[in-house]
Structure formats: C-alpha cells, structure tokens
Write a structure and sequence with these properties.
The complex is a heterodimer. By secondary structure, chain A is mostly helical. Helices cover 69% and strands 2% of the residues of chain A. Chain A has a domain of 143 residues: Orthogonal Bundle (MetI-like fold), CATH 1.10.3720. Chain A has a two-stranded antiparallel sheet. In chain A, a hairpin with a 5-residue loop joins strand 1 and strand 2. The longest helix of chain A is centred in the last third of the chain and has 30 residues. Chain B has two domains: 42 residues, no CATH class; 220 residues, MetI-like fold, CATH 1.10.3720.10. The chains are: A mainly alpha, B mainly alpha.
C-alpha cells in the first residue's frame, strides 16, 4: 500500500485522475448503469420499447408464483451438485501426474491436459452435441457395441416405464424429457478441467521430497498419502474452484441455450434461471419481468459471493 | 508456477510408475476423444463415416473438399473474431494499465473510495445486466456492430486486470519513477517507458487470458449481432449447426479451421498459456 500524499502534491498531480477516469467511465456506463437500470425496470411492465407502465411489486409477486422459475432453480441445484462431484476427476488426475517420477512425463501430461483448451469452447460444445446425436452419434454407437444398451434397456423395462432405452430404436438424448438432465450431467465426460488440474498441480508443487520419503518409511498407503499429505495442501485451491464453480454454474445458461434451445428442451426440463430470464426478455418481450428475474438471481449469487469472501481467503 | 522439476516426489524405489501412466493415458484418451473425432471425421463424408465411424479414412480417400467448404464458410467469421478479440485485448490492457497506474503510483485523495467502486463489481454477477445492457447498446445505436462487443469486453475485464496490474506496478522499484521525474517525464511517459517494458510477462499472461475469454464468447455476439457478415466464429457455428442438412465431415472441418488461430497462438505462447491459466484461476 502506498503512503498518503499531501494535498499540495495531490493538486499538482491532478492529471493522474485522468488516468483512472478512463476505466471508471467504462464501468460506470456499462456495468453500474445497466445494474441500476435493471433495478429500476424491475418495477415496470416493459416491452423493450417506449411503452412502460409502473406496476410496483407485481413482477416480484409474479416471481413467487412462477413455477417455471422455481423448477429451474431446482435444476440448477442439481447441476451445481453434479459439477461439484465433477471436480473429483481433475483432483485425481492432478495427484496422479504429480506422483510420477519422471519430470518429462509430468510435463507432457500437463501439455495433454491443456490441449483441449485450444479448441474454442463452442466447438467442444458442438462436438458433444454430435456425440449425443441419435442416429450418427458416437455415444449410442459405444453403448451398442459394448452391449451396454441391452443392459440399460433391461434395467429400464424392469424398473421404469421401459420407453427410454430400447434396443430397437436409437436413444434421443437431447429430445427425450427424462434424458435431458442425465445428458446435461454426462456432458463433458470424463470432466477433466484443464485450469483445475493446473492449479492443483501448482499447489502440489510445494510438497517436498522428504514428506514422501518419510511417509514411505512409515508404510503409508497411497490413499492415506492423498488424505493426509496431498489433500490438505490443495484444500485452498479446491475451496476456491468450488466457489467459483458454484457461482459460475448459477449464472450459466449458454450450454442449455445451444443444446436445447430457448424453451429449455422437451417439457422445459433443461430450463435454468438464466435461460428463463433470456427467454422472458428476448422471446416473450417481457423486459421488466426479465429484469426482476435477473435481480432474484443476482441476490442469490450475491449471498454466495459474500459467503465466499468471508470464508475463502486466498493468499498469493 | 514453478518449474516442473522442483520438489518432485520421490516414491520408494519399489513403487512402479507404469500403472499410473496407464490410468492417466486412459483418462486423457477419453478426454481427447472429441478432438480425435473432429480430426478424423473432417476427412470423411457421411457415407464413409457411417461405414467406418472410428478409424481415420485412408489418405487417398480423404475428403479434401470439406476444408474448401469450411474455409469459405468460416474465413469471414475468423476475421471478425480476430478483429473483436485483438481490439478487446489491446484496449482492455491499455485502459486497465491507466487505472492500475493511478492506484499504484500514489495514494491520491479518494483513491480508497474509487478502489471500492471497482472492487464492488466483483460482487455483481453479469447475468442480471444483460437485458439493460442490450437496451443501452440499442439506444447508443451500437446494436449490430462489432464495437459493441469490444466495449462490453473492455468494461467487463477491468476489475480483474486492474487488480493484478496494480499489485505488480506497486512492486516496481520506486527509484525508476523518481529518476524519470527528475528527467521531466510526465506520468504518461513513465507508464509507457517504465511500466510497460517492465511488466512484459504479466501483460503477456493477462493478454492471453483476455484473448481466450473474448475468443470463446458467444452469448454476447448472439444477442447483439444480427447481420451474418458480422458474426464471429461462435455465432457462425451456431447458425451452421441449425442451417444445413448435417454433412458431418464438412461441419467437423469447419470446427477444425475455426480452432486454427488458437492453435497457432498456443504453439507460440505455450509457457505463458500454462502460467496464465493457473494464475487466472487462482485470482478468479
């Protein structure tokens, strides 16, 4: 932190304010103003044009009775939970790579982990959409060649209605109501996050040789090593990725928009809060209501961020 | 990120590594399957793909015309993407350097208050802003222009970049600035001739992060652009996905060509890439 400077000097250095004015202008105009505008318009009925009608708290009353919105919150809860579990493979792989003796191998694996990042996220998304394709998609092909399809079909007909998985018809992952949520969860298998693996590896770097040697002398098992040596060291990173992931998942709706469309897919099963806001604004033209939904979402994320700032301290 | 050869674990001599190699290779193999599929399908037509879905086509049968189709389709979008991404990255860093210099150089009156104004943005999720932002851009007559995306990109990235750059500039030796002042250099000159040359690596790292964010953005272009000749890669691919009778070979070839600029960037900046990604995630 810099020391305060005298008023006389500050006056002489007034030009410095011009420096900060530039970024300030950007955030006031394109961040604070839209945020204020969202609060303001959430009290209006507004079709996005000049016709605006003040309706007080009606938008928020409507939110209370909006089952689509609350169902979307349930779905996002499920997806957050799934995403938290999806952290495990990254931790696992990071620990595996870290335990290798050969530095060269460590380097090459690290490179392989980063490799998928050089493909635009959207391309990855569309390749996955192709994986789910009923007729040509590799996922169905894999299930058929490995005969897993028969197992699933048997399971389905024994315990459920028996019309989701069949051996005589291709499985339409993204257009059957009951498969939409599972498809969203399977998406991205085996869920290795390049960024996650890299920061876990960075955390693991600080374990010195001696710790492992001592552990080996004591006959500590591989899993105990993970539990008592490695996990405590990456706990900060895990907590951090966890909270960022939760906040990120709550806001996200791009995946659902592109895989399932504006309506959230068959039966609206893939509807998440962000998508419902997008839908209300750009499909239903209810901009006032969309602003109100945005505020509710903002409120949830704000609470999480405050919890995050309070309990997850990240030191350099 | 420290060098990979520091503090590596030394297992006991009898611990063998090959099972670990097998597990890692197996998991990474599945992880890289989408990339492999993209590569090999890009050389096939639908018929070849149905007959032989998994293995690459023989070189003699490789469908080179897929790439021709892909090039014509995606080249304008790649150009748009490059324009948006490069402008956003350069301007973001320039504006953030100005802000960071202000906070790092002296503690001016109000600088604590201004700092709070910036930091508070970290609490605000962008998703609630999309609708009013659309209205704002519309009233500024910037709807359906690439500059709208550049401006939004710049304002969205300020907090993170100023935060990192401020810490970095504060750590630069004070004597340099004092010497420059004696020579009569103004603040802008100091920024240009001291801060920028000395912050090469951190600016490089931030530039890559900014580049990646901007390159991967598809929601904003989808909302703000209407004319197909303005579409960056993301939106162009969305329309490709909806418009054609699915010729998977041609589609995968398009995906491949759309990835080339990032591949080139990656080849030249592999180290910065890895470091940027790790530090970026830590700072959120």
């Amino acid at each position: 932190m810099q020391k305060s400077i005298s008023t006389a000097k500050a006056l002489r250095e007034w030009r410095l304010y011009l420096f900060v004015a530039v970024p300030l202008l950007f955030i006031l105009m394109f961040q604070y103003f839209p945020a204020a505008s969202a609060v303001y318009h959430s009290f209006f009925e507004w079709d996005g044009d000049d016709t605006k009608r003040f309706i007080g708290l009606d938008n928020f009353r409507r939110i209370l009775g909006d089952t689509t919105l609350w169902n979307s919150f349930i779905l996002i809860g499920i997806l957050v939970l799934a995403n938290v579990l999806k952290l495990i493979p990254s931790i696992f792989i990071a620990v595996m790579i870290h335990r290798l003796k050969s530095d060269k191998a460590q380097y090459w694996y690290r490179l392989l982990v980063v490799l998928p990042m050089i493909v635009p996220q959207l391309v990855v998304l569309f390749i996955w959409k192709f994986f789910f394709d009923p007729n040509l998609g590799p996922l169905n092909k894999i299930l058929e060649t490995t005969r897993l399809m028969e197992v699933l079909a048997w399971f389905d007909s024994t315990f459920f209605a028996g019309n989701t998985f069949r051996t005589d018809a291709p499985v339409a992952w993204l257009s059957q109501e009951q498969l939409i949520v599972p498809a969203l969860i399977i998406w991205g298998f085996p869920w290795i996050g390049a960024v996650g693996v890299l920061i876990y590896l960075a955390g693991l770097q600080s374990i010195s040789k001696d710790v492992y040697e001592a552990a080996d002398l004591d006959g500590v098992s591989a899993f105990q090593k993970f539990l008592y040596i490695e996990l405590p060291l990456i706990m900060t990173q895990v907590r951090l990725t966890l909270i960022l992931l939760i906040i990120g998942t709550l806001q996200s709706f791009g995946l659902q928009l592109l895989l399932l469309g504006e309506g959230g897919g068959a039966g609206g099963r893939g509807m998440v809060p962000g998508l419902w806001m997008y839908n209300q604004a750009f499909v239903a033209n209810e901009f006032g209501y969309a602003c109100a939904i945005g505020l509710v979402l903002f409120f949830f994320i704000l609470i999480l961020t405050i919890i995050n700032n309070k309990y997850v301290r990240v030191d350099k | 990120m420290s060098a990979p050869n520091q503090n590596r674990p030394a297992g006991a001599p009898k611990v063998r590594d090959w099972p670990k190699h097998l597990i890692i290779l197996f998991v990474l193999g599945i992880e890289l399957l989408p990339l492999y599929m993209m590569l090999q399908i890009s050389g096939k037509n639908n018929l070849m793909f149905t007959e032989n879905p998994w293995l690459p086509a023989r070189l003699g049968e490789w469908q080179w015309e897929n790439y021709l189709f892909a090039f014509e389709l995606i080249a304008p979008a790649v150009a748009n993407s490059i324009f948006i991404t490069v402008s956003t990255t350069v301007l973001t860093l320039f504006v953030a350097l100005l802000g960071a210099y202000f906070f790092a150089r002296y503690k001016m009156p109000f600088s604590n208050f201004l700092w709070a104004v910036f930091l508070f943005l970290m609490l605000m999720p962008g998703v609630a802003n999309i609708v009013p932002l659309f209205m704002l851009i519309k009233s500024m007559n910037l709807l359906n222009t690439l500059w709208a995306l550049v401006i939004i990109g710049i304002s969205g990235a300020q907090v993170f970049n100023i935060y990192i750059l401020r810490n970095f500039i504060e750590d630069l030796p004070k004597d340099l600035f004092e010497a420059a002042e004696i020579d009569g250099a103004g603040h802008f000159k100091q920024l240009l001739h001291i801060v920028i040359p000395m912050s090469g690596p951190i600016i490089g790292t931030l530039a890559i992060l900014s580049f990646l964010t901007s390159w991967n953005e598809f929601l904003m272009p989808l909302i703000f652009l209407k004319d197909s000749e303005l579409f960056p890669i993301g939106v162009a691919l969305i329309y490709l996905d909806g418009e054609y009778v699915k010729q998977w070979g041609a589609i995968m070839a398009t995906f491949l060509l759309a990835s080339i600029p990032l591949i080139i960037l990656f080849l030249f900046t592999m180290k910065l890439f890895v470091r940027g990604l790790s530090s970026g995630a830590v700072k959120g």
